[in-house]
Write a structure and sequence with these properties.
This protein is α/β, with parallel strands linked by helices and 335 residues long. It is built from 13 helices and 11 strands. The radius of gyration is 20 Å and the shape is globular.
Length: 335
């Protein structure tokens, strides 16, 4: 019996991890989640086999609710973009302080636990001119991006802890027709190279790690979909626009940023795949699943109103707004 603590179970990857672990015999699962109506409703299922602890990563007293020992901790909880850009304090309190407090508590109650941390490809910074990424590449510690800095600091907390640990730097995660459309879509330059993966494949990596701890110990890995999941942001958007009935990617000039984002090809992501065999999907699978999820009626309706929909979307573009208002500070950030 392995005792596993999971944080971030209400997130996209976290919920996939929760579902996978809930189906495995010999797993004693505990989840630490924020108290909310949505979470309380969501995690009523499997209540008999999963211990639900309500707590906030920013409240030191809530960590006292964690008692007993754990064999594995899977720490996925974090504030991610675009929410991460709303408050520097909130982002650092959750992503950095929360990680530090969790590590401190686990060192007290389960010093032999294996601590798994989800980081991000964002820590490498803008790789537009050098899209080939490896774990040995330097991190962009001087990045102005709040999320980037918080993830780098959280990684440091994990690496300098007294626990046995591993860090997975996740690539962009693409679910099937469940993307919340925000202005963040315009922050990535269209010629950005990407190696993406799905929530279920990423979750499988964390779950498969339970039997491969020896091979992961004190190591950092890039988690991506491999060569079959590589594309460009322009190609990705163009295909998804077609699938959903939005037609061509015909936005005004300067709608998309031209620098200062992240992503690239993770040339060493096969290292993790060779250990964990977590990949089940390719880019072709992703497009196929998206096509199956869009009904003909939905696609026809969207196509009919494609022009006003795209006009509405471009109003979310911070780069376009900066360009049209001649905001020099913002233009320097995006162009």
């Amino acid at each position: 019996m392995q005792k596993v603590l999971l944080t971030g179970a209400s997130g996209g990857i976290g919920y996939e991890v929760f579902c996978l672990l809930s189906r495995i015999e010999g797993i004693d699962l505990t989840i630490l989640i924020r108290e909310s109506k949505k979470n309380l409703k969501k995690f009523k299922i499997n209540k008999s086999s999963t211990e639900v602890i309500l707590g906030d990563l920013t409240n030191p007293n809530d960590f006292l609710k964690l008692n007993g020992s754990f064999d594995v901790v899977i720490h996925l909880a974090a504030i991610i973009p675009p929410e991460a850009y709303l408050s520097e304090k909130r982002t650092f309190d959750v992503n950095v302080l929360g990680t530090e407090l969790l590590i401190e508590r686990i060192q007290e109650i389960a010093p032999n636990a294996f601590f798994m941390f989800s980081s991000s490809v964002a820590v490498y910074g803008d790789r537009l001119k050098n899209p080939e990424i490896r774990v040995s590449d330097p991190l962009n510690k001087d990045d102005d991006d709040l999320y980037v800095r918080s993830k780098i600091k959280a990684e440091e907390a994990v690496r300098y802890s007294q626990l046995n640990w591993t860090i997975f730097r996740l690539t962009a995660i693409l679910g099937v027709n469940n993307h919340k459309v925000t202005g963040l879509m315009f922050h990535m330059p269209l010629n950005t190279r990407m190696e993406v993966t799905t929530p279920s494949d990423a979750a499988r990596a964390f779950v498969n790690s339970l039997e491969k701890k020896t091979f992961l110990s004190k190591r950092v890995f890039n988690l991506g979909g491999g060569a079959s999941f590589r594309t460009s942001y322009r190609e990705l958007l163009e295909e998804n626009f077609k699938i959903n009935g939005l037609g061509a990617l015909d936005f005004p000039e300067k709608t998309f940023a031209e620098k200062n984002f992240h992503c690239g090809y993770m040339l060493d992501s096969d290292d993790l795949e060779d250990i964990l065999h977590y990949r089940k999907h390719t880019l072709a699978d992703y497009y196929r699943l998206n096509k199956e999820a869009v009904s003909l009626l939905q696609k026809s309706f969207t196509y009919m109103f494609r022009s006003p929909i795209k006009f509405f979307l471009q109003q979310m573009s911070a780069p376009l707004k900066a360009f049209r208002t001649n905001n020099l500070d913002e233009m320097k950030r995006f162009f």
